Amino acid sequence: MTRVIDVHTHYVPRGWPQLGALATSPWLRVDSEREATIMVGSDEFRRILANCWDADLRLHDMAEDGVDAQVVSPTPVFFSYDRTPTEGVKIAKVFNDLALEICAPAPGKLVPFCQVPLQDPDLACAELDRCLAAGHRGVEIGNHVGDRDLDDAGIVTFLQHCASRGVPVFVHPWDMLASPRLNRWMSRWLTGMPAETHLSVLAMILGGVFDRVPEALKICFAHGGGSFAFWLGRLENAWHGRPDVIGMSEKPPSSYVGRFAVDSVVFDPSALRLLVDVLGGENVLLGSDYPYPLGERPVGQVVRKAQFLTDADRALLLGGNAAKFLSLPTGSRLTG
């Protein structure tokens, strides 16, 4: 029977009093026992429900959608990359320990991924190691730190460390640019997130990161890799036509297909088919963006209904690829 593993879900703790003065922004306004609002300063960022922190509610929704396990990752607004490294690691430690508490009721089903102070590679590596020893299975990182993209030397050092430890890395877009044009219609999420993700894949390729990190690096990009699959042909054409200005990769961009995975959160069978055709079915992992309203519910419905997939392909997308990403042996059940 196919195991269904969702690699893209998020959590928010109900409170974190240990942060004290560091909890000024962003912070959580608890509105009731079952509802809260993520605040950035005095501005409302997102209304959330108790399924962000309540394991029983998550497990109920998973059972309803036929999901056997969730990778539970931080909500990116709390990455705190704009803090000093000392503040960043303090915040990461508090959130990472709270993530373990949220996942503790179901160690075989709720799989915690940690966050790290990516603004400081040494502290990031140290916090990753601490979290692995404590029970985290992987790490979620933002797609940039200020103006530093994934080809930044310090971030590459962290990715090399992840590869040496065999740690899966989930890259999530965040901190999208704001402008009068982008502040309408949730456009920062509808256009900014795909663009940020696309840019991050480009940084890995054109910035020569895949030439510098071991092939053992396991890295997955959220939201279907943004628009990368659609525009790979344009990128390939530019690499051959303008090698004087296009990046520092040793090989053409298409040569790096297979070095990274993407999730399936594209909401449409035609878009999913493009991912499978361009990136390969073995490189697409089930994701939902649970529990947020722009996520997919029921989880996996596009994969389950996609007529172009064979039963074997569908099994890979629903769980087989994620099991490999998480280093689970074939036939294994998730255990704590």
Automatic annotation (TrEMBL):
Keyword Ligase on entry: no
Pfam families: Amidohydro_2 (PF04909)
Pathway where it operates: Secondary metabolite metabolism; quinolate metabolism
Gene3D superfamilies recorded: Metal-dependent hydrolases
EC number(s) reported in the record: 4.1.1.45
Subunit and interaction comment: Monomer.
The protein's name in its UniProt record: 2-amino-3-carboxymuconate-6-semialdehyde decarboxylase
Family that this chain belongs to: Belongs to the metallo-dependent hydrolases superfamily. ACMSD family.
Domain Amidohydrolase-related positions: 5-327
Keywords carried by this UniProt record: Decarboxylase, Lyase, Metal-binding, Zinc
